[in-house]
Amino acid sequence: MSRVPLSALAAALLTGATPAAGPGPRWTADGALIRPDGVARWVTVGTSLALGYNDPTSGGAARFQPLFHRVYLEPRAYEVMRRSGRFPPGTMLALVLAPATERVAPARHGVFADRAIRLEVAVKDPGRFPGGWAYFDFGAAEPGSTARAFPPERCARCHADHGARDNVFVQFYPLLRDGDGGALPTSSSNSMLSAPDGPQTPP
Fold it and tell me: With DSSP H G I counted as helix, E B as strand and the rest as coil, what are the percentages for the chain, rounded to 5?
């Protein structure tokens, strides 16, 4: 029988949202988040290339390296959000960063996402964090590693000011922004789709 953390349960009773079932976030005794397992099997809700929130020229003359950003939502939280329009207490969103790589045979043009180099996680737990959400950076750490929440001014403040829904940048995630209409009709949001070769003309 799965148990919902008391902090998430209390927040759910106050907000009317249903806690996400399942194991949810795992914490150490001193409040650090344990790196979630199996993120690649979560629901892919958004992918972007070189998306950033600062002027790229503000870092000086250093060459800007574009990164793919893949955003995953824990499946149980996705089902609650899809039905209710709310992210339940216990929600976890994962951001996986991978460098854009090119010139690998037989490709002649374009780029692809190479091996992931960084994992960041957002957790909704109003009973634990005053703003409701907290943000964690695991870098390239192995499973079982831990991370502590960033100070609010690092991430939480920007998400609170600019997140289109409940501190989340759903404006970048069509599956969440538009509901199921944001995805092509497949059996799974992570399904591979076949497409004809050559340039595609939008309808």
Answer: 20, 25, 55
Token pair for 78: 């996705």
Would you state the pLDDT for residue 32? 97
Instruction: Please provide the DSSP assignment of 25-94 as one string.
Output: --B-TTSPEEPPS-GGGSEEEEEEES--SS-GGGGTTSPP--EEEEEEE-HHHHHHHHHHSSPPTT-EEE
**Burial label, 95 (beta-carbon count in 10 A; 0-12, 13-18, 19+):** middle
Instruction: List Cβ neighbours of 106 (8 Å cut-off, separation of 6 or more).
Output: none
Per-residue pLDDT tens digits for 41-65: 999 998 888 777 666 555 554 455 6
Rounded Cα–Cα distance for residues 8 and 68 (Å)? 32
pLDDT digits (tens, 9 = 90+) for 166-194: 889 888 888 888 876 555 444 444 433 33
Q: For residue 115, give the DSSP letter.
A: S
Domains, in order of start, for the chain = 9-51+65-171 (3.50.70.20)
Check if the beta carbon of residue 174 is closer than 8 Å to that of residue 184: no
